[in-house]
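Hi support team,

I'm filing this because I wasn't sure whether my run with zinc ion finished correctly. The job status page said complete, but I'd like someone to confirm that the output block is well-formed before I use it downstream. Pasting the exact inputs I used:
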Amino acid sequence: MFEIHCPYCDEKRPEIEFAYAGEAHYVRPNAKEQAVMSDEDWSRYMFIRNNIRGEHAERWWHNAGCNMFFNAIRDTVSDKFVMTYKMGKPRRTPAQIDKARTAQNDGAES
Ligand SMILES: [Zn+2]
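And here is everything the job wrote out:
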């Protein structure tokens, strides 16, 4: 078992307290956009998601804790969380992800 940092509780908690809640930063088209979308585009929005090998932006739910949703960058190869951040924060840039990974690796060595 591993631990996940909840940005709302600001502590690491056992993974069993969390649930995966889909891809992060996936925005539902507004009513105006939906009105002109083809069935194919709507279908793509509803069912097609990225399936990235490597660092993936995901939404997680602290369902057995504070009950809040948050975003995370998780390496799908190693299953390690690089960083977590609160909902509403912008998508993390590659530079921010690199910095978090470096800090995490430095912490692991000490
Ligand atoms: Zn929490």
